[in-house]
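Q: Here's a chain of 159 amino acids. Please give me its 3D structure as tokens.
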Amino acid sequence: MGAMLAGDTSPGVKVSFTTEDGTDVFMGRTNTFYNLLQPQQQQQQTSSSSSPSKKSNPTLSLDTLRVFIPPPLRSAMATAGVLQSDDYVPMRDLFTSPSVSFAYERGWRQGFAQAGFPGADEEYDMVRKYFEDVTKDVEGSTVVDMSCATGLFTRRLAK
């Protein structure tokens, strides 16, 4: 039940994506977002060498328990250096949980049609037509899905 309500609180699995030409590498973890706007090499160059490594910091295990710490206390603990930072918000990743995505796409999403929305198929056609002019002449166009992060439309756009 914790994974459905607050996302996966484990450190997650390390994931990396490499462009076809191998020039850019994008990294992230399964329990957070992937920064697809800035390749990993650029991130390493811009990060300060004085910042401590997360692997060597004993607060990593405490960071996985942050969902149980009240937000005002989390902020104070981050300021005091006990926690890494107060940037991670568990509910932000709610829809990245496979069980929540499944329930959304095969249950809750159908409620939108009953509320008067055109439905996923017609909404996809609207999105495709909207972006058609700016993506038709560009090879390897990038579209960022800024919705609920289930990938409902992103998977269709990727085809």
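Q: Can you summarize the key feature?
A: Residues 120-135 form the longest helix (16 residues).
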